Amino acid sequence: MDNDAHNLQSLIEAMDDVILELTEQSVIKRVWAKDKSKLFMPPEFFIDKSIPEVFGEFGNIFINCINNLLRTGERQQCIYPDFDKNKNLWYCAKFQKIDSSNTDIRIVCIIEDITVEKEMTDQLEKNRLELIEAKNLAEQVARKRTETLSIMSHEIRTPLNAIIGISNLLDQATFSNKDIKEYVDHLSYSSNHLLRLINDILDLEKIESKKMELNETPTNLISLINNVYKQFLPFAKTKNLSLYFNHDCQTPEFLLIDDLRLTRILNNLIANAIKFTEKGEVCITLKTLVNQDNKASILFKISDTGIGIPEHLHNLIFDKFHQVNQDSHRQQEGSGLGLNITRGLVRLFNSEIHLTSKPSVGSVFEFQIDFKKNMPLLPQPEKKAESTEFNFPPLPDFKLLIVDDNPTNLLVATRQLSRFGIHSDKADNGYSAIEFLKTKEYDVVLVDLHMPGMDGYQLAKYIQEKHPETKVIIFTADVLEEVKLRLKEMGIQYILSKPFKPEEMFDLFLEVLESK
Ligand code: ADP
Q: Is residue 352 domain-shared with residue 233, that is, in the same domain?
């Protein structure tokens, strides 16, 4: 062996790869392998055997490469797994023609173990795919957030425009009583709309964080539904729609019901039914499926003859912030929260809401609730349909102090109380409230919670310690459960939420005064 050949031999033997020298008929002429364990049989067993003889069917991948190499003269390569699947190893075989002094064509095949590289590329590819997925998801979330913000912004700006616009009008000229009544109606509608939106968002948060629990009390089901029905009659009438309430004679009267939540579900569904119906009727139907001594199962059905909902949107409309832009109908106002909250509330009752609907025919939303039964306690008065006319009997005379740092809230509360015939002292912070308390014995103090310096909690504690006869009513816009819990722990049971309705304020004062 001359020197060059010797060097080549040492170089080849230093390589980790397996090298085969082949004829153009794919017969193996020589084999090199530094690590003989990489061959599945002793090297001499390969010599003068063709690729199919040695590798069987598996050799086809090599034969293809060799044919391509002979046809094109260009280097070929293939990647393949170990014959033994349990080994989980990968190889790359590279084929190249070599110059030979004799006329026979010789092919060299270098087989390299690429398991580590393959794992790395696979992992990289997977990471890249995951990155793309994460990017797509992030883009989708961003799009949804923009969409949500745009809906919310629209929903908040629309009533605000009315409130601000009417305030400007009121500031500019003199008006007839008719003008004023119209302005006040718009102010009231727009501000109530804003309040509903905020309450919806708070409820949604409570449902999603599973902080909402049923509060069941003995309730007359029929009068509950009757109240809801009566409340919607004027709305249905303005659209010339018939509104019906039917129930079978089996329907039990007294059940344990979370009346606020059930009312909320029905309100949402009936409001939608009327909103999306231009002619025909809306029906509230109750069907008694089970009526036993201790339980009853009731099917609630809200049906309408409105625009209906195409089948492909049946699930989508329950998504939050999802409004369906139906071509046949002008865009209605709404945050797209209603049905999401409704479904959450129905689930709170351990039930599911079902929808059947056909475009241009109408929609039916139904759900079934199992109630526990209760013996009648007190006859429940039926509420009158909501009206803006209030007739309040005079409250007994008492001494009242109102503490609030917000001048508008202070003004609204004192003016409303004076309409009930109550005159009050006003303090715009906790310290001046204490000064008032030192000079006069008050029956009731209405205390705002969030005030700079001394807050409502501190002031309430001071009153409880120094003036135990004085009743504290907390006057707050903070309606979180945590706040209610903290006040309960302090022994404070009276809360007037901002914004308040006159009748809520009246009823609360009546209750507080009666408890004295
Ligand atoms: P919104 O508060 O915006 O009305 P909802 O969650 O209550 O939102 O309803 C979502 C969408 O479902 C509505 O925008 C409307 O397209 C559709 N929808 C709900 N109820 C009805 C119904 N009774 N008839 C037709 N479409 C309805």
A: yes
